[in-house]
Amino acid sequence: MQPLDRLASQVGKQSAGLNACTGGYVTEGFEPVAHAFQASVLSGATLGAACTIMRNGETLVDLHGGWKDQSCEHPFGGDDVALVYSLTKGLTGMAAAVAVSRGLFSYDEPVAGIWPEFSAHGKEAITVGEALSEQAGLAAIDYMLSLENIGDEAAICAAIARQKPNWTPGDHAGNHAYTLGWIASELIHRRDPAGRRLPQFFADEIAGSLGADVFVGLPDSFDRNRIARIEGFGMQDLFIHHATMPWPLTFEMCLPGTLAFRTLNNPLLLKGPGALDCDAFWRVGQGAAGGMASARGLAALYNAFAEGGEKLGVTPDVMARLTKGHQPPRKGLKDQVLTADMYYSYGFEKPFDEWEYARTRSAFGSFAVGGSLAFCDPEDGIAYAWITNKLGTGKWDDPREKMVRDAFYACLESRS
Predict the structure, then answer these.
(1) I need a labelling partner for 63 at 20 to 30 A (CA). Which of 154, 188, 199, 330 fits?
(2) What percentage of the chain exceeds 90 in pLDDT?
(3) pLDDT in the model for residue 415
C-alpha cells in the first residue's frame, strides 16, 4: 500500500476554492487514482469526498479528502458517513435480495399476493420484480409528505396501495425517488416472521452481519461528529450551473403538475435535496433516499455481492437475476420522471448503452443526486464506492467521480 502524503496543510477558506488535506492509500500501481482523487478535491468543485475500491476482496483504493462541512475546519475522514440519497436504493435492493434468498417472497410473485390492498386501480398483476425495478407507475403519490409524517410508514404504504399508477405498469420505468423504499419495506414487513421493516431488517441481516458503517435509519447512539454535512443546491442552480441534467427534467422539476415535479418535490417543495440533511430525516430510515454511509461501508457491502453473495446467504439464482437484470419495460428504457434512459433492475441500476459505468454488464449498483456512485461487478470482482457531500447538478457520470473511476479502470487495464 502507498500512503498519501498530504498535498497541502489546512489553510482554511480561499476565495477561488478550497484547499484541504487528502489521506488514505492506494495499492502500488494505482497511484494515478490518488492523483485523480486529489485533483477532484483540490479543484474546489468537491467540498469533501471519499472513495473505496475493492477487487476480489482486496482493498486497492481507500481515499478521503476535503472538508466535512462548509466551515472548512474539519477534514472529511475515512470513517465519516454522509447522507447518500439514492445510493440507498441499492441498499434496499440488497435487502430484497436477501429476503428473496430466504424465501420470504419471490421476484415473480404478485405484490398483491403479499399485500392485498395493493391491487387497487389495476395493480393486481404487478410483480415484486417489476415494483423493485421501478416499473409499477408509483413514482409520484398523492399523499403529501413532510419531515413530520415521512416516518409514518403505515399511513404512507396505505396511500401507495390505493394510488392510481402514473402509467400502465410494465410499459415504462421511472425514478421511484421515495416510494421504492416503502414498497420494499412493506413487502419485508408482511413476510418477515419477526415483522421487521426495512431499516431493522437491513441493520440485522446486512450491515450488522458485515460490520459496515451503513445505515437505513441512523441510530441515536451513532456519533453525530462523524457525519459529513451536505452542501446542497437550489432550484435556481439547475439553470445557473446547468451541467448534464436533461433540460426537459430541469424545466419539469419546476412546473407544478408534471410527473417530475410531483415525484421530486414531495416532500420539501422546491427546497432542493440538501434540505433533507437533518437529524429528523437521518433517523427515519427512508429506504430510497435516507441511507447514511461511509465509502468504506458501501464498498464492503458491494464486495459481498461481488464475491457471489454467500456471506449474506444470497442464493446463486438470485445472484444470476441481479447480474442478468430484470426484463426492461415494454416501451423502452426512457425514465418517465428523469426524461432520459435508465435501466432499473431489482432495486439497482444496470449498465446500458448510454451508461457503461463498469467493464461488464454483470454490474449493478446505484447513483445518487449530486454525483455519488456505488456498485459491484461480480464478473470483474469489483466493489466501488465514491461519495461526496457537495451535490452537483448533473445526472450520472459526475465529472468529479468519473475522473477517479476512469483512472482506476485505466490502472486495472494496464495490469491485465
Answers:
(1) 199
(2) 81
(3) 84
Structural domain tally of the chain?
2
Which grid cell sits at 81? 458517513
Q: What is the C-alpha to C-alpha distance for residues 110 and 131, in angstroms, rounded to an integer?
A: 9
**Torsion of Cα atoms, 52 then 53 then 58 then 63, to 10°:** -40
What does R_g of the chain's alpha carbons equal in angstroms?
20
Question: 176, 134 in Cβ contact below 8 A?
Answer: yes
Q: Cell for 10? A: 489546512
| CA–CA gap between residue 412 and residue 416 (Å, rounded) | 6
Query: 21-31: buried (b, 16+ CB within 10 Å) or exposed (e) per residue?
Result: bbbbbbbeebe
CA distance 301 to 305: 7
Average pLDDT, the chain: 91
The three-class DSSP label of residue 210 is helix
The string over 333-353, giving b where at least 16 C-beta atoms fall within 10 Å of a residue's C-beta and e elsewhere, is bebbbbbbebbbbbbbbbbbe
Do both 223 and 316 map to the same domain?
Answer: yes
Pairing of strands 22-26, 364-367: unpaired
Give the C-alpha separation, 244 to 70, whole Å. Answer: 25
Read off the pTM.
0.93
In the chain, the amino acid numbered 360 is T
Domain that holds residue 76: 2-80+375-415
Beta-strand ranges (E) seen in 114-248 are 214-216
Closest CA to 290 of 225, 202, 194, 209: 202
| Contact call for residues 32 and 366 (beta carbons, < 8 A) | no
Lowest mean pLDDT among 103-112, 129-138, 225-234: 225-234
The answer on pLDDT for 161 being more than 50 is yes
Q: Are residues 329 and 187 in the same domain?
A: yes
221 belongs to a structural domain: yes
- 304's enclosing H/E stretch is helix 295-306
Within this chain, do residues 15 and 142 fall inside the same structural domain, yes or no? Answer: no
Q: What is the DSSP letter of 279?
A: H
Three-state SS for 364? strand
For residues 302 and 385, the answer to whether their CB atoms sit within 8 Å is yes
Nearest residue to 357 via CA among 347, 370, 345, 366: 366
